[in-house]
Amino acid sequence: MKWSTLVIGLAITVVLVAPVAAQQSLGDVAGSIKLKRPEGESVVIDRDSVAQSRRGPTGGTDSRLLRDIVGDCLTETTALHDLAEETRDGTSFYRDPWRDRVEEVGSRLDGALDELDLVVVEGRYQEAYNLAGRGADQAREALVIIRRAIAGNQPVYSEARTLSREAVDHFKDAQKALGAASRANAAEEAAPSINPIEANRVMTAFCRGKYAEDSSDFESCIAEQRAAVDAMAGRSAPSVGLDAASFNVIRNNCRFEWPNNFVTQDRCEQRRIAAKKTR
Predict the structure, then answer these.
(1) Could you report the per-residue pLDDT of 207-260, keeping only the tens digit for each?
(2) What is the predicted pLDDT for the residue at 185?
(3) pTM for the complete prediction?
(4) In angstroms, rounded to a whole number, what is the distance separating the alpha carbons of residues 139 and 105?
(5) Which ranges of 87-125 would DSSP assign to H, the alpha helix?
(6) Does the residue 105 lie in any domain?
(7) What range defines the domain where residue 118 resides?
(8) Could you tell me if 203 and 170 lie in one domain?
(9) 154 part of a folded domain
(10) Is 2 among the domain residues?
(11) Which residues contact 117 (CB under 8 A, 6 or more apart)?
């Protein structure tokens, strides 16, 4: 009876321990694996996955990711430039607190610049990425110069001040280019359908501003506004012979330019559609 109990106990122990040992062995093997590839064959990296894993879930598009990273680069490059400016007092450079701050800012800047290298963009966002890339090159060089000065204990890095200042300007220009690209993309998206309740509020406010609400002119104004709304509701890219992007740009621009007058908004669409088709 004792032998049976002992055998069962050993069996249970083996069952429980085996998976753990197997996992440890698998971990050891995985840690010892080195990837090999034929000479001349490049390694393909999923840049989006790498960037997202480093920053955490963003829930956005490549443009939003690029905007976040450019913002990080701008923040840390500005901090680096400010640190370089602090040493004009002649003493900060030799103090440990200042050098510790350079190391902290430099570490964050390295991370932001590395993330910028991993972003993949296309289309309108390429200009913004190129501007950010120029800033990144200058920021890296400025950081190298300052680190070299600290390592040699010689405060010779006036060039780093210039480079970091120019890098800041490039990152700011990149942000402006990102904004312009985002607006251009938004203009090509389909405009939301006209909300009847909101449309009624807009046309009533417009006509009331011109005529007495109980007058025939007011009623005629409302009728014109409603006719314009109906005309635009029945208009689409296929119906006017334009591609969707071109039609959406026209509709969105007219909508933004004439938000309080549907008649003028309708005429705006008609004119620009006709002009687009004659090109």
Answers:
(1) 999 999 989 999 999 999 999 999 999 999 999 999 999 999 999 999 999 999
(2) 87
(3) 0.62
(4) 12
(5) 96-118
(6) yes
(7) 47-187
(8) no
(9) yes
(10) no
(11) 136
Look up residue 255 and give its two tokens: 């909508």
The answer for residues whose C-beta is within 8 angstroms of residue 182's C-beta and 6 or more apart is 63
- Is residue 112 located within the same domain as residue 214? no
Q: How many domains does the chain have?
A: 2
> How many residues appear in the chain?
279
Using one digit for the tens of pLDDT, what is the confidence trace for 112-147?
999 999 998 888 899 999 999 999 999 999 999 999
Question: Which 8-state DSSP code applies to residue 260?
Answer: T
Of 139, 167, 187, which marks where a domain is finished? 187
- 240-252 burial code (b ≥16 CB/10 A, e <16): bebeeebbbbbbb
- CA of 276: how far to CAs of 174, 237, 251, in Å? 31, 12, 12
Helix boundaries (H) for 43-61: 47-55
**Do 132 and 55 fall into the same domain?**
yes
Looking at the structure, do residues 203 and 182 belong to the same domain, yes or no?
no
Q: How many CB atoms lie within 10 A of CB 47?
A: 13
Strands (E), 107-266: none
CB 85 within 8 A of CB 161: yes
Under DSSP, is residue 21 helix (H, G, I), strand (E, B) or coil?
helix
Query: 44 — phi, psi (to 5°)?
Result: -95, 125
| Locus of tokens 């480093």 | 54
Closest CA to 158 of 76, 77, 85: 85
